[in-house]
From TrEMBL:
This is Uncharacterized protein. Keywords: Membrane, Transmembrane, Transmembrane helix. The chain crosses the membrane at residues 26-49, 74-92, 138-160, 187-202, 208-229, 241-258, 278-296, 305-325, 331-348, 355-375.
Length: 634
């Protein structure tokens, strides 16, 4: 049986070369240098030889005997902590590490947050540590990884008697994504510790002491609320209520949406029934428990509490909308620990040494990328790009998200290595998603102000359908040296619709002016303007980007004291509506000025009609007073 399963794992690894984004649980091998790939394949082939099994069994026997010593569990924990201090990922690319870091940084000025307890603990640790916040959190996770390994040793010692079995199962349980989640910043580390403590106390003591860590696990992460149902397994009567309770708890999780994740069947029913969704689940399962395929033997031997937890975790994984696809492997690592425990307890004892070695190889494959920053980033790309999840496909495509996160990493660390990667992925984001303005925005932030930054923004203005932020960036970009006339005219001539700011006003004006006899746009002294010609009356509509104002105005009388005095004296006449008379040089104008941010389509049209109507009226009035009109136009 073992050779066929090795063949199955080999095929999955081989397919990962051709489909690295789809088989991301195996694709770490594709980012390693060739010599390391050959070394891994050689080790995998050696598993088929009995001599390898005998050699590794002797090592496991020595390790198993050492476990019985009092100091060994502490050495296992310390060794694991040191390992994660070395390979812990220093970037923000997995999960929502950057947001977690920001929440801890701003605590307690964050208001309520579902992970407030974890945030508070992280903040407390960082307050007593002399290092930077980012390093503090990595150190804390390494220490928690050591505690996790210590608890795994205690749990395995509780469940098994043979020293060789204990050693092999410790390796198996430490080879999944549950341990790997400790190698970067997230809020799953503490609830996972309480999850293991719950099972340890439940399986070791005939008391309800396990309810304390179960309650803490649910408080630190509400998806673990099902652990409280273990209390029903203490007697036969309680077991009768177990499955109805599990259904009730799942309904509660779905209803309250306690994890801030959508329910996939409700939000994305098409994706729920797709092959891509179930392939994602397979990747999560195999990463959480590398020897998962050994369950194909059809022999599951475990305890009811573990079986129940595994079933509930499988249902949660299937129902929740993992928006980041492979990027959510850390969350699934926490949820699927009961499944990993079920798999470990169901493995054939005769094959445990080779299964342990296989699990160790896969663990080193997925954790070893932390030794090199380039491997880390390339692996993160495989986890986030081409994932096919609705969120990454439509709302935050992989290259754009990666550019954003690498930019944040660069701004936090001032390390040019991350900046160079962000620029590289930013260009890829623009090339693949030319209508999404975020790629241009992130890239412009990374390039010093100059000709290239201007070119990127202008390229975005031509391609992006949501370019108001680009225009605002342009305004800020040229705030000190002034906006070039040629650039303003380019903006004015863009065929864009809707939005806010100057682009929204331009789009509205384009639609409004289609109903008038107009000319333009023109440009003079940094002002964009159009002229409306209506029965001899000329009204000018001007945009003043530097002051973020829009004006609608027309000349009424020039250099005529009687007309000027009369009009200015009656500046509060209601017949003018929102338009007023004002004096510029020796000319009286009728018009209005509004901030760009306070004006919309209806107001613009009203202003133009108001000025046109009243301008014609007052010119007629002045003619009856025998006061000549001024020259029209600008």
């Amino acid at each position: 049986m073992f050779p066929f399963l090795i063949l199955g794992y080999s095929l999955l690894l081989a397919f990962a070369y051709g489909f690295p984004h789809q088989l991301w649980s195996f694709s770490a091998i594709t980012v390693l240098p060739l010599w390391l790939q050959l070394l891994f394949w050689t080790a995998l082939i050696l598993l088929l030889f009995k001599e390898t099994t005998r050699w590794f069994t002797r090592l496991l026997s020595l390790f198993g005997k050492a476990i019985s010593h009092r100091q060994t569990p502490y050495l296992i924990g310390a060794g694991t902590a040191i390992f994660f201090l070395i390979v812990g990922q220093k970037h923000f690319l997995y999960g929502d590490s950057y947001q977690c870091y920001g929440l801890v940084k701003r605590f307690p000025q964050i208001g309520y947050h579902p992970r407030i307890l974890s945030i508070a603990v992280y903040k407390l640790f960082s307050s007593i540590s002399p290092f930077s916040l980012h390093r503090d959190l990595l150190i804390l996770h390494a220490l928690l990884a050591g505690l996790f390994a210590y608890l795994i040793q205690r749990l395995v010692t509780l469940l098994f008697d043979r020293s060789t079995d204990r050693a092999a199962l410790i390796i198996v349980l430490l080879s999944g994504s549950t341990l790997l989640l400790y190698n970067h910043i997230e809020f799953y580390a503490l609830p996972t510790i309480f999850l293991i403590l719950t099972y340890y106390y439940f399986l070791s003591k005939d008391s309800f002491l396990f309810l304390i860590p179960a309650l803490l696990a649910a408080l630190f992460h509400p998806l673990l609320i099902y652990l409280l149902g273990l209390s029903l397994l203490r007697d036969e009567i309680g077991r009768r209520f177990l499955y109805p309770l599990s259904i009730f708890i799942l309904i509660l999780i779905v209803h309250l949406n306690l994890n801030n994740l959508g329910i996939l069947l409700r939000d994305e029913p098409t994706y729920f029934f797709s092959s891509g969704h179930w392939l994602q689940i397979f990747n999560h399962l195999i990463l959480a428990s590398p020897p998962l395929l050994f369950l194909l033997r059809g022999q599951i031997k475990t305890r009811l509490a573990i079986t129940w937890g595994a079933i509930v975790s499988l249902l949660i994984i299937s129902l929740l909308n993992f928006t980041l696809g492979g990027g959510d492997w850390d969350l699934s690592g926490m949820i699927l620990f009961p499944l990993a425990l079920l798999v470990a307890l169901s493995l054939p004892r005769s094959e445990l040494p080779r299964i342990g070695l296989l699990s160790l190889l896969l663990f080193l494959l997925n954790s070893g990328i932390g030794l090199n920053r380039t491997w880390e980033i390339r692996s993160a790309i495989l986890h986030l790009d081409h994932q096919g999840t609705p969120y990454l496909s439509h709302q935050f495509p992989g290259p754009i998200r990666l550019t954003y996160l690498l930019k944040a990493q660069y701004l936090e660390t001032d390390d040019p290595y991350y900046r160079n990667w962000a620029i590289r992925l930013g260009w890829e984001a623009i090339d693949r998603f030319p209508h999404d303005d975020r790629g241009y925005l992130f890239l412009a932030d990374l390039i010093p102000p100059g000709g290239l930054s201007e070119s990127i923004i202008r390229l975005g203005l031509r391609n992006s359908s949501h370019s108001n932020r680009l225009v605002n960036l342009l305004t800020d970009f040229y705030k000190r040296k002034g906006i070039p006339d040629r650039l303003l005219l380019t903006i004015a001539q863009l065929r864009l619709e809707g939005g806010e700011g100057i682009i929204g006003v331009i789009a509205n004006l384009k639609r409004i002016l289609e109903g008038y006899n107009h000319r333009g746009p023109f440009l003079k002294d940094g002002v964009i303007f159009w002229r409306i010609l209506d029965d001899g009356v000329v009204v000018t509509v001007s945009l003043l980007p530097r002051s973020s104002m829009v004006e609608v105005w027309g000349p009424v009388v020039s250099n005529r004291p009687i007309g000027s005095s009369f009009l200015l004296a009656h500046n509060e006449l209601k017949t003018t509506g929102v338009a007023k008379f004002y004096l510029r040089a020796d000319t009286v104008f009728l018009g209005a000025t509004f901030p760009l941010s306070d004006i919309d389509h209806t107001e613009l049209e009203y202003l133009i009609d108001c000025v046109l109507t009243n301008l014609s009226f007052y010119r007629t009035l002045l003619k009856t007073m025998k006061i000549p009109n001024s020259r029209s136009g600008r």
